[in-house]
Design brief:
Order of helices and strands: HHEHEEHEEHEHEEH
Number of strands: 8
Low-confidence stretches: 1-88
Strand content: 5-15%
Mean pLDDT: 75
Shape: globular
Radius of gyration: 48 Å
Distance between the termini: 130 Å
Oligomer: single chain
Helix content: 40-55%
Length: about 250
């Protein structure tokens, strides 16, 4: 009898252990399924762990550490540095002027501003008088004597300029004699000369021909005359003159 009850108890225990084992397996499978589903949901929504970014490929380099493939030049027709420099040299201009009252200086500055030209002022070594009545007598005497007053300072590298604007007042229907000093001092052969003049009403007189005689191997363009009363505001007249010569911006 005792043996019977012992067998019964053993069977009951064996059955209980089997049931518990199956339940654990089922629960474990269910938990794994839940975890996998959750992981899938995170991946779809982007909430999972970030992927480690790979470094971008670096350009190949030559032995000097420079990119092996040079960037191609722009083919849009942009000039190279040498071409631009050459063009700048070809268009190098200089404004040379003598001014006693300031009228010619005003015009010279307007020309320089509109053309980008360099500027050289002709200054006599011995300054002229500031008295007008005395000046006209001095100017007449210089013309009569064919004087060539000395110029203070000089132009370096005149050969670099191909365009020279030359300005002066009209004294006794001629250029001041110090302009003759200038033309004697520099060879303007092969250059282009554009004269400009200020006066009370005498215009350019015969100064254009005088310049052509002094510089026979230069091209002398049509000159500009501005009356003394308009010299303080010469911009418009200068613009029109440069445009007529094809020298405007």
């Amino acid at each position: 009898m005792k043996r019977f009850f012992g067998v019964m108890i053993s069977c009951v225990l064996l059955f209980s252990l089997t049931a518990c084992g199956n339940d654990g397996t089922e629960r474990g499978t269910e938990s794994e399924a839940v975890n996998e589903a959750a992981a899938g949901q995170q991946a779809e929504e982007g909430e999972g762990p970030d992927m480690e970014k790979q470094p971008e490929a670096e350009p190949e380099t030559d032995t000097a550490g420079q990119p092996a493939t040079e960037p191609e030049a722009d083919t849009a027709g942009q000039p190279g540095a040498d071409t631009a420099a050459a063009k700048g040299e070809e268009n190098r201009a200089l404004v040379v002027y003598f001014s006693w009252s300031g009228n010619t200086e005003s015009v010279a500055k307007a020309i320089a501003e509109q053309t980008g030209a360099d500027v050289f002022e002709i200054i006599p070594e011995e300054a002229y008088t500031e008295d007008y009545n005395t000046l006209i007598d001095i100017a007449a005497k210089e013309k009569e004597d064919g004087a060539h007053p000395a110029i203070a300072g000089s132009i370096e590298n005149m050969e670099q300029y191909n365009m020279v604007y030359v300005g002066y007042p009209n004294w006794w229907s001629d250029m001041p004699m110090i302009l003759y000093t200038f033309f004697d001092s520099y060879d303007l052969s092969g250059k282009t000369i554009a004269p400009f003049c200020t006066s009370g009403g005498s215009g350019l007189s015969d100064t254009m021909n005088s310049i052509r005689e002094l510089e026979p191997d230069a091209e002398v363009l049509d000159g500009l005359h501005i009356g003394s009363s308009s010299a303080s505001e010469p911009d418009s007249a200068v613009t029109d003159w440069l445009g007529s010569l094809g020298l405007g911006e």
